[in-house]
Specification:
2% strand, single chain, mainly alpha, two-stranded antiparallel ribbon, 305 residues
Length: 305
Amino acid sequence: MRWAILNICRFDATGAARMVGGSRAPQSATNKPMPHFFLFLTIVAYVFSLGSYSRFLRTGREVSGRLGTVFLILGLVAHYFALLERSRGTHTVPYHDIYGSLSLFGWLLALIYLGLELFHRQRSVGAFVMPFVVAFFLAANLAPAGADKLSPPPAHGPIFAFHVTLSILAYAAFGLSFVLSLIFLVENSLLRKRNLTDVVWRLPPLELLERMSRSSVLVGIISIAIGTALGFIWVDRLTGQYWYYDPKYVITLVVLLLYAIYWLLARTTAWRGARASRLCIFNFVIVVLSFTVVNLYLSHSHRYF
């Protein structure tokens, strides 16, 4: 990603951005907002995508589902340029604060869903995923100025940038698997109760939901494994050692282990179905704790990722 490649800035003790070459960026640039055009285009495209997917789920009209995909792609493109402009305005990657991190999370969540939709050829899930994408985008861009009181993390080159980006990609993939697991449990309950409405019939088959969840988890496992390895490399370059104690390291390895266990168990006869979905939901609770409590209160080097 472009902002990952161009991440060559670091922060001085006062939090002002200073380019590696030595020249100080204008202080007003750190507060430069994203262009309103890209913000407006992104939210309009995402809302229209949500509406189209919801109409497809209610009516089953194929044209509505296709419009949902088209608007989602348009929203992803606009959101990308909004993130790019944010990166240019702050002279760093978008996740230099918690709101940029949330915006990147929402973008990656939408991107992973689009990939799963195209791969599995299933649009019925879009109506359940898009509300989360819209919520993260709004939370990132409608927060009051100056609400983030924590100091930004120091940024040190492309290895660090890819480490953080892949970590957020993993969180987004695990978040999507969480949504898919919830849909599985609700649909399974409705089928058992024989509450067979038109919407239930248009939901993906249970087996397909399982496959989509496993695919999303696999993306997360690969991303968090590579991202964690890059993090150890970055720590070695920064401190001369591959490891120093940080609660974030511990919980990240726990998350990796839990999802690896899920991915293996979900393929077995004894665990596939509702049991695997509940395990996936439990795993995401640990991810949420990692992304919130551990990042904000326990870790000194991981604030927003």
